[in-house]
């Protein structure tokens, strides 16, 4: 089981509650990735967001920088909003990061995106949501699977490619491409049909309710004739690790509250309720908030339903103090990861 973290960047707050700079948020995220590598985490994902509170708008740039400053950790997008980006540029950015890393540590996760900020930002129409994603994912896969640099492709959402070079190529010829989904059955079936690993973003409800989707994914992949080795599942969740459960709950709540207030303003969510927060932070809720023993036990519990090979947490939200994020990364690597390994071995 690979254990890791992901982030959209998190803008810290001044003592009076006003936001610090987005450039500081990006520097903090870079520092966290380097720390995660040194601490021994297996994976770090950088998600694409375009808000002042979550300013990691260019995963490829951050991952390329981190690739040069890390040694072992796998790095990927979590996710790249492929429908409103250009697959040629996404591939080039991540292939560049792969070259910088020496090869074998860089991945792309292609997602639709739960936020819609990218559509007006890049001039796309929400009515084209499905077509944009389907065609651009097809192009990204075509580039990745091509045997050399010269690619031909045609579609309706961007200009065609007629034997044009897309460079650089990845060190090992291709990059791992994952398909991200928040729980849509069609996305699970699509990942299975295409033979892509699937990454489930679980941010609410009981995580084990995703088990039927994992079964659908595996069954679809098998029916399509894809080898079992290609049918990988990862789980992205929300959480925080602290020395005690009490500390974890107290540290995470202010940021959770801040984020939900902002999302309520942007997307019409209802006002945050602390009772809902506390319910989600207890099994079988979706938040992995607790001491190392509890977090490890809950990861292994979900593995019994999902059989996933990677579990990674978003911890820095709503202005979480950076030192708490760094401590949580350390505990995740040095305390949670070995506990998960021992529990899985004992099963």
Polypeptide structure, described:
Residues 16-304 form the Luciferase-like domain. This is Oxidoreductase, (N5,N10-methylenetetrahydromethanopterin reductase). Keywords: Monooxygenase, Oxidoreductase, Plasmid. This protein is an alpha/beta fold. The protein has one domain (2-346): Luciferase-like domain (TIM Barrel). Helices cover 46% and strands 17% of the residues. Strands 1-2-3-5-8-9-10-12 form an eight-stranded parallel beta barrel, surrounded by eight helices. Helix 1 packs across helix 2 (59-69), helix 1 (22-39) runs parallel beside helix 11 (322-346) and helix 2 (59-69) runs parallel beside helix 3. The radius of gyration is 19 Å and the shape is globular. The model has no long low-confidence stretch (mean pLDDT 96).
What features would you highlight for this structure?
Bact_Lucif_Oxidored, 347 residues, eight-stranded parallel barrel, alpha/beta, monooxygenase activity, oxidoreductase, 46% helix, single chain, two-stranded antiparallel ribbon, Luciferase-like_sf, monooxygenase
């Amino acid at each position: 089981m690979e254990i890791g973290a992901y982030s959209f960047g998190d803008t810290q707050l001044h003592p009076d509650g006003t936001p610090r700079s987005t450039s500081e948020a990006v520097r903090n995220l870079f520092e966290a990735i380097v720390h995660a590598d040194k601490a021994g985490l297996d994976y770090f994902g950088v998600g694409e967001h375009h808000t002042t509170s979550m300013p990691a708008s260019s995963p490829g740039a951050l991952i390329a920088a981190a690739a040069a400053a890390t040694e072992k950790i796998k790095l990927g997008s979590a996710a790249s909003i492929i429908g409103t980006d250009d697959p040629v540029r996404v591939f080039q950015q991540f292939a560049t990061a792969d070259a910088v890393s020496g090869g074998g540590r860089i991945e792309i996760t292609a997602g639709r995106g739960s936020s819609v900020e990218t559509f007006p930002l890049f001039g796309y129409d929400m009515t084209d949501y499905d077509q944009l994603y389907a065609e651009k994912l097809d192009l990204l896969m075509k580039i990745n699977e091509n045997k050399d640099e010269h690619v031909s492709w045609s579609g309706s959402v961007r200009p065609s490619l007629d034997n044009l070079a897309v460079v650089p190529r990845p060190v090992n010829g291709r990059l791992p491409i994952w398909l991200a989904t928040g729980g849509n059955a069609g996305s699970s079936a699509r990942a299975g049909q295409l033979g892509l690993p699937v990454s489930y973003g679980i941010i609410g409800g009981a995580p084990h309710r995703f088990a039927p989707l994992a079964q659908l994914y595996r069954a679809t992949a098998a029916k399509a004739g894809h080898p079992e080795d290609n049918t990988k599942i990862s789980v992205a969740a929300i959480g925080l690790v602290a020395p005690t459960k009490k500390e974890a709950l107290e540290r995470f709540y202010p940021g959770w509250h801040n984020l939900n207030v902002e999302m309520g303003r942007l997307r019409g969510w209802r006002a945050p309720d602390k009772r809902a927060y506390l319910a989600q932070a207890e099994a079988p809720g979706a938040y992995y908030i607790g001491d190392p023993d509890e977090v490890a036990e809950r990861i292994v519990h979900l593995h019994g339903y999902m059989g996933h090979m990677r579990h990674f947490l978003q911890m820095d939200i709503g202005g979480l103090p950076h030192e708490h994020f760094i401590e949580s990364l350390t505990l995740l690597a040095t305390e949670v990861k070995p506990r998960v390994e021992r529990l899985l071995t004992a099963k």
